[in-house]
UniProtKB/TrEMBL annotation, chain A:
InterPro entries: ABC_transp_permease. This is Ribose import permease protein RbsC. GO terms for molecular function: transmembrane transporter activity. Its main location: membrane. It comes from Palleronia abyssalis.
Automatic annotation (TrEMBL), chain B:
Its main location: membrane. It is a peripheral membrane protein. This is Galactose/methyl galactoside import ATP-binding protein MglA. It comes from Palleronia abyssalis. It holds the Pfam family ABC_tran. The keyword Magnesium does not apply. The gene is mglA_4. It is found in: Cell membrane. Coiled coil: none annotated. It comes from the Bacteria.
Length: 368, 528
């Protein structure tokens, strides 16, 4: 038997974690002289109280779906890819190059090309740490985090040099009109649903497809089977003839590719030109999303929406009240802390209480 | 009448729904050697952990020398004079013997006083009980037999007069085991009480006075050893009659299947683990490789199974095997008709977090029958799992259970089912019954013999000499990465094999224990 029933593992624990984070946040908000309940209402309303709120929430969520899936796939191979940030930045370069190099006639052509471009660049950026881990044993946590800095520097170098548009700002020229992705407002207007003007765009559907794709990969293909086996036990993988080098490389390439896809949403769907800080920490939020989503695509999707709501609600809170911006970051950090790092704090006692309830001797454990 | 050294009354302990100990009663008289025997998972270790303060019993009372006591932690156990020697030693490798002995029991701010006291005591103990150990040797330079003695000395230094030993002979050669038993006899003569936990019936019969049998968390019987027999004990352990000897006909060896020439393997740190091994295995025979754990047997299996690279020449059915490069992996080996039941099923043979059905295809997941184009055919895997579970009598019968939820014996049955079903030309088997209960041992041995009788070649590696003696048609003994000699089971003895296992090829003459030890310590110093 597993220690916890599945529903408790996937729903109850995250819910308790979230509640704890909100309680502690509430205490902190009280200390700075604000009403925590009012703050909560503003956050919830701001995130999901209107199509405007939903639009932003799901836009952020799309970013987190990609970075969350990226971390999740690597997790399955027991690789801790914290380079989502850098891989997403390189992905943005790939997407920008695709959008700028061809005078795209229509977005339906530009989107698949941008998907390929973003994924390839993201994967390429993950390939180097992956190779160093697989062949030379350099720890992937160290190398990926260093590659985040290198990616950021590389982008600045290009944006003040080869790719810089005329003018003051370190950014490229605007993408051609044919590479502009339709927003949710435009898409929904076709079927007569009114929706506010938000950055939410068709990339959201790409995100859903990516969730399905990762599920298919991990639980229905040989490669996914091998990745999971390798993640559980490397000696067992070697026993089964699964090459550790191959799996490390492939898992990281897929992971980096998924992180790179984030640029399709942020850069192509929203900013419509390549700017310097286009990832804005989404690579790191992806770690929390993957942890909270227990590395399962469905969990990642739900966690991504939750974090999207937190981002959007936090922005509203900052706008409507005198809760300072730093406070909003503190609340987000508390959620990450409780759902990610302090997971074991809730898990242990919960497992014990479940055991106590199921104390009745089961007729299982049969004889040999 | 003297009070029992240890008396347990109504001890119960549950881990969730699993009741590990059920209303246990036990009386151990002072100055005796008391055996506790039972299958894996019968609750022996749990009971001893309660006695040593690692677990707290849900219910029940503990009396030591007639006094009721609480044992909340191991410090309390030590204060009550209980000492424990674990199966896996808890020694600091780069400390000396003396430093390890005083560790945690230092007196005063300066080490010198405790070390001086320990040295004096050590001298006295080594004379009294044949516990000879060099006090200034580093642990990493000592053989396992010596390390075990250090563990015993540690307990005695803490004034233990009740000594619990958990599976103490698992890592010892027969002569080392004999020496250990002499030490235990000596302790008994001095009035100490010894509790010996083991699954080996022979040891129980040899050294204990009384024996308690555990089965499925219950103490099923306590009997005087002189008044019982191995057969009766086995029956008490399993709950039904068991065949202790393997029933097999004489081998009819055919042509050579596996031919190994001068095989060499280096480990990650460059130490040569195999120093030129040559052997052959023929169709229809079982070649048993005996040896103390860590003398290269694992590396032999791993290199043949495609888990590590090596140097030398290996032929299977006359065709050479690649020992390095991309074609030296386990997948290629399986395609060449080599099955492999690995030594460590939990780390290698199974993915413990995978369902049983995911495990039945492990290593063969490329097979066409498990796949449908790009995707895996999970239905086919589940169907195959159900068939294997039925055929090999795996319990529970639910293919959706995770591998970690099966007992050791049932886990091994899953591995055996997977590897035997493909009827490999050559089967590599490592420690097939380690951590497996008696009932399943019988079954697994039958399966291996049946495969031999189908005309397959089998290379068996085991540290259990009994198993090697009863299963093998030929026995090769390994020591320090070399084959020390080959013997026929009918023409050899445990004593002779024991000497070969210690690296002594001159088996005609008698050898003192000291000679054997010196040889063992020498080799482990080199290899470690």
């Amino acid at each position: 038997m597993d220690k916890l029933p599945k529903w408790a593992d996937v729903a109850l624990i995250p819910a308790i974690n979230l509640a704890l984070a909100l309680i502690v946040s509430g205490i902190v908000v009280t200390f700075i002289g604000q009403d925590p309940f009012e703050a909560l209402v503003i956050m919830v309303n701001g995130a999901v109280g209107s199509t405007y709120g939903w639009g932003y929430t799901l836009y952020y969520a799309t970013n987190f779906v990609f970075t969350g899936l990226a971390v999740a796939v690597a997790f399955h191979a027991k690789l801790f890819n914290i380079g989502g940030e850098g891989q997403a930045q390189l992905g943005s370069l790939g997407v920008a190059l695709v959008c700028l190099s061809v005078p795209w006639p229509h977005w339906t052509l530009a989107l698949p090309a941008a998907v390929v471009g973003g994924a390839l660049f993201g994967a390429a950026w993950a390939a180097i740490p992956a190779y160093l881990q697989a062949k030379r044993g350099s720890h992937i946590v160290i190398t990926t985090i260093m590659f985040n800095f290198i990616a950021s520097a590389l982008l600045v170098y290009l944006l003040i040099g080869a790719l810089k548009a005329p003018g003051m700002a370190p950014e490229t020229v605007r993408f051609p009109e044919g590479a502009r992705l339709p927003s949710a407002q435009e898409v929904l207007a076709v079927i007569g649903i009114p929706f506010s003007r938000t950055p939410l765009n068709v990339s959201f559907l790409v995100g859903l497809l990516a969730c399905f794709g990762v599920w298919l990969l991990m639980w229905r293909t040989r490669l996914g089977y091998e990745i999971r086996a390798f993640g559980h036990s490397e000696p067992a993988a070697r026993y089964a003839g699964i090459s550790p080098v191959k799996i490390t490389m492939l898992a990281m390439l897929i992971s980096g590719g998924l992180a790179g896809l984030m640029a399709v949403n942020a850069v192509m769907g929203e900013q419509e030109r390549l700017i310097q800080d286009n990832v804005l920490g989404a690579g790191f939020v992806g770690i929390a999303v993957a942890l909270m989503g227990r590395s399962h695509p469905v969990g990642v999707l739900i966690a991504a929406i939750l974090f999207g709501a937190l981002y959007q609600g936090g922005a509203e809170l900052e706008f409507e009240t005198s809760v300072p911006r730093e406070m909003v970051v503190v609340i987000q950090a508390l959620v990450i802390l409780f759902t990610g790092a302090l997971d074991g704090m809730v898990r242990g006692p919960l497992e014990k209480s479940f055991l106590r309830f199921s104390r009745k001797p089961k007729p299982g454990v049969p004889a040999e | 009448m003297t009070a029992p050294a240890i008396e347990l009354k109504g001890i119960s302990k549950s881990f969730g729904p699993v009741q590990a100990n059920k209303d246990i009663a036990l009386r151990v008289m002072p100055g005796t050697i008391h055996g506790i025997i039972g299958e894996n998972g019968a609750g022996k270790s749990t009971l001893m952990s309660i006695l040593y303060g690692f677990y707290k019993a849900d219910r029940g009372e503990i009396f030591v020398r007639g006094e009721k006591i609480e044992i909340p932690d191991s410090q309390a156990a030590i204060r009550s004079g209980i000492g424990m020697v674990f199966q896996h030693f808890k020694l600091v490798q780069n400390f000396t013997v003396l430093e390890n002995i005083v560790l945690g029991a230092e007196e005063g701010a300066l080490l010198r006083t405790s070390l001086g006291r320990a040295r004096a005591l050590l001298k006295q103990l080594s004379e009294e009980y044949e516990l000879h150990v060099d006090p200034d040797a580093k642990i990493e330079d000592l053989g396992v037999g010596m390390q075990q003695r250090v563990e015993i000395l540690k307990a005695l230094y803490r004034r233990a007069d009740i000594l619990i030993l958990d599976e103490p002979t698992g890592v010892l050669t027969p002569s080392e085991a004999d020496h250990l038993f002499r030490i235990l006899e000596g302790l008994k003569r001095e009035g100490k009480t010894v509790i010996l936990i083991t699954h080996k019936l022979r040891e129980i019969m040899e050294v204990t006075e009384t024996v308690s049998v555990m089965r499925r968390g219950e103490m099923t019987a306590t009997v005087k050893t002189a008044e019982t027999s191995p057969e009766e004990l086995a029956e008490l352990m399993v709950g039904r009659k068991v065949l202790l000897r393997v029933d097999k006909d004489a081998a009819k060896p055919g042509e050579t299947v596996l031919d190994v020439h001068d095989l060499k393997v280096r480990d990650g740190s460059g130490v040569e683990r195999l120093r030129g091994v040559s052997l052959t295995v023929k169709r229809g025979e079982i070649l048993g490789v005996a040896g103390v754990a860590g003398n290269g047997q694992s590396e032999l299996l791993e290199v043949l199974g495609g888990m590590r690279e090596g140097k030398g020449k290996v032929f299977v059915n006359g065709e050479p095997l690649d020992l390095t490069g991309a074609k030296s992996d386990a997948r290629t080996r399986r395609k060449r008709g080599i099955g492999h039941v690995p030594e460590d099923r939990q780390r290698e043979g199974l993915i413990m977090d995978f369902h049983a059905w995911e495990n039945v295809g492990f290593g063969y997941h490329d097979d066409a029958r498990y796949n449908r184009g790009l995707l895996m055919n999970n239905d086919a895997l589940r169907e195959d799992a159900r068939a294997k579970i039925e055929k090999f009598d795996v319990r529970p019968t639910d293919c959706w259970q995770k591998a970690k939820n099966f007992s050791g014996g049932n886990q091994q049955k899953i591995v055996i089912a997977r590897e035997l079903e493909r009827e490999p030309d050559l089967l590599l088997v490592g420690q097939p019954t380690r951590g497996v209960d008696i009932g399943a041992i019988e079954f697994i041995h039958e399966q291996i013999v049946a495969l031999r009788d189908q005309g397959k070649a089998i290379l068996l590696v085991s540290v259990e000499l009994d198993e090697i003696m009863s299963l093998s048609d030929r026995i090769a003994v390994m020591f320090d990465g070399r084959i020390m000699g080959e013997r026929l089971p009918s023409e050899t003895s445990e004593r002779e094999l024991g000497l070969l296992m210690a690296g002594i090829t001159d088996t005609e003459h008698d050898h003192t224990v000291e000679e054997v030890e010196a040889n063992l310590a020498h080799s482990s110093g080199k290899a470690g």
